[in-house]
Amino acid sequence: MSLKKSGFSTRAIHSGEKHEETGSVTTPIYQTAPFKFKNAAHAADLMGGRMKGYVYSRGLNPTTEVLEEKMADLEGAEAALAQTTGMAAISAAVFTSVKGGDHVIADEVIYGSTYDLFIDLKKFGVDVTFVDTSDINNVEKAFHRNTKLVFFESPANPTMKLTDIKAVSDMSHDRGAAVMVDSTFMTPYFQKPLLLGADVVVHSATKYLNGHGDTLGGIIAGASDYIKSARHTAKNIGGSITPFSSWLIIRGIKTLQIRMDRHNKNAMAVAEFLHGHDKVETTLYPGLPDHPQYQLGKKQSSGAGGIISFLLKDAKDVPVFLDSLKMCTLAVSLGETATLIQHPATMTHAVVPREDRIKYGIMDELIRLSVGLEDPEDIIDDLAQGLEKI
Ligand SMILES: Cc1ncc(COP(=O)(O)O)c(C=O)c1O
């Protein structure tokens, strides 16, 4: 079946699916570590790379392959690779992209463990400069002769600032560096970084792609040659995803469009409520017209997503507010059916030294909210009663 002219949901449901042999309508879970060789010559051909096929699930698994083909199609990529977590995907992608002696430019506001990974890279002789990539002049000024990679999230976790994917990609390519975008907050439904000029897109599939908060996963998508190298690196690191997790994420992706539309609609209603509230200092959501990069958001993404950050007026009110909530769940992670709320300074970004954190705008007063799929009035009611307590 050709999906060339199909819309997003049709592709999300059908792309990569192969169930001809048994007639199974859903993708089977190939819960096996090794695959049987037909004979010694077949084994030698597979192991020698002269023939493509299944050998061992750390390298290739038919269930995971469906997920990889589906994600490649949705991102407009030549190929994709699935890993056991978002961090396994980001680590494998970064190790594929740089070597000792190279220089990386990374946005200063990124997920805490990714920030920590870049700090760790210094041990391997890779120098990293953190800048605010939302201003392209900072990126340009940070370039060295040996800069090989520019990395950012857009929107950035947790300050929700945006980086101009096309402008940074064009400028970086002129200077010989590749661009890697963590597009977890947007998913390919709202944003396709590769079509905007980026070289590699990474995701925590734990979030919206799976969508139900019941497994971890990660995705790398890009050019075939790049994914071939990444697969080699990833096989040696060993962060392969389990077939069951791949299956859960495949199932999640089939409803991605309807979930993202609802997350977006709910988040807009919640952002408008927070924006006008006298206990809230600032609301950071790219869908609000007073977000500093509202126009850029409109240009490079077809939706603003389901994540809102907001600042209370006083940091000492943060625990009072969080502990008063009755339905919104105090937990890290994001992008699932339930509304999750957390305090980056003491939770997801606790690894970033306070001095740097404050400099980057990850203030002690900042709260991140992953707006779920509940009825928006119920989310707003819970936040309203929590704000009343401070
Ligand atoms: C933007 C972003 N990227 C990457 C990750 C890491 O993903 P995982 O927890 O699946 O390793 C996270 C986790 O919260 C994230 O928010």
What is the gist of this entry?
The chain is 39% helix and 15% strand. The chain is of the alpha/beta class.
CATH architecture of the largest domain: 3-Layer(aba) Sandwich
Unreliable stretches covering 5 or more consecutive residues: none
- Broad structural category: alpha/beta
**What's the number of extended β-strand segments?**
12
Question: Would you write up a description of this structure?
Answer:
The chain is an alpha/beta fold. It has two domains: about 10-255, Type I PLP-dependent aspartate aminotransferase-like (Major domain) (Aspartate Aminotransferase, domain 2); about 255-390, Aspartate Aminotransferase, domain 1 (Alpha-Beta Complex), CATH 3.90.1150.10. About 40% of the residues lie in helices and about 15% in strands. It contains 15 helices and twelve strands. It has helices at about 10-15, 40-45, 60-75, 85-95, 110-120, 135-140, 165-175, 185-190, 225-235, 245-255, 255-275, 295-300, 315-325, 355-360, 375-390, and strands spanning about 80-85, 105, 125-130, 145-155, 180, 200-205, 220, 280-285, 305-310, 330, 340, 365-370. Strands 1-7-6-5-4-2-3 form a seven-stranded mixed beta sheet, with helices on both faces. Strands 8-9-12-11-10 form a five-stranded mixed beta sheet, with helices on one face. Strand 4 (about 145-155), helix 7 (about 165-175) and strand 5 (about 180) form a beta-alpha-beta unit. Helix 1 packs antiparallel against helix 3, helix 3 runs parallel beside helix 10 and helix 4 crosses helix 9. The longest helix has 20 residues, at about 255-275. The chain starts with 7 loop residues before the first helix and ends with a helix. The chain binds pyridoxal-5'-phosphate. The site of pyridoxal-5'-phosphate has 15 residues, from helix 4 and helix 5.
